Amino acid sequence: MVLLISKTGCGKSFLCQALGNAACSKLIPTRYLRLADVFDRLNRSRAFDAASYYSFMDDLKSVQLLILDDFLTTPITTQNAVDLFEILEGHNEKVATLIASQLEPHEWYLWIEGESMADSILGRVASAARRYDLDGPDMQRYFAKDMPEL
Q1: Which among 138, 139, 134 has a CA at the least distance from the CA of 104?
Q2: How far apart are CA 46 and CA 33, in angstroms?
Q3: For residue 49, what are the contacts with CB-CB under 8 A and spacing of at least 6?
Q4: pLDDT beyond 80 at 126
Q5: Which tens digit of pLDDT belongs to each residue from 55-92?
Q6: Mind giving me the DSSP string for 106-126?
Q7: Neighbours of 74 (CB within 10 A)
Q8: Please, what is the average pLDDT of the chain?
C-alpha cells in the first residue's frame, strides 16, 4: 500500500493516473476511482441490486492495483466506513493499493462516522502503507494564471 499526501494542486491525481497508466501498459488490471464515486456506486447498487453491489465489491477487493483518489476528503457514513474497511482488508498484503489524499491520516477521523471503524481503517493504512509527502507549488493556480480570461 502506498499513501500520497499533499495539499491541493501538487500533482497527486496526476501521479496516480501516470502510475495507473504505467500499470495498464504492463497489462496489470487497474482501477482508478475517486473515493466519493466508489461510495456513490456502492450505495446505489446496495439500494437497487444486491448482486451488483457484491460484484463491484469483489472487483474492488481483487483488482491487482486499486487507486483511490481524493481519499476521505468528504465525510462518510458508518456503512461506507464498513465498505472501505472491507475493501482495504481485501487488499491487505494481497494486491496493491495506492491512496491519494490532501488530508493527513490523523485528520481522517473527522470524516469517518463511527470511532471504531475510523480506528480500524486507520490501523489498516498505518500498518501497511509506505507514505510519500509531496510538496510544491499549486500547479492548478500556476497554470490558471496563464489562461486567457473569458
Answers
A1: 134
A2: 18
A3: none
A4: no
A5: 999 999 999 999 999 999 888 999 999 999 999 988 87
A6: GGGGGGBSSHHHHHHHHHHHH
A7: 10
A8: 87
Q: Which amino acid is at 79?
A: Q
Which residue shows C-alpha cell 500547479? 139
Neighbours of 19 (CB within 10 A): 18
Angle of helix 78-91 relative to helix 50-62, nearest 10 degrees? 40
Output the nine-digit C-alpha cell for 149.
480570461
pTM to 2 decimals? 0.86
- Asked whether 99 and 3 are in contact (CB, 8 A), the reply is yes
CA 10/CA 20 separation, integer angstroms? 18
Please name the residues in contact with 127: beta carbons below 8 A apart, sequence gap of 6 or more.
none
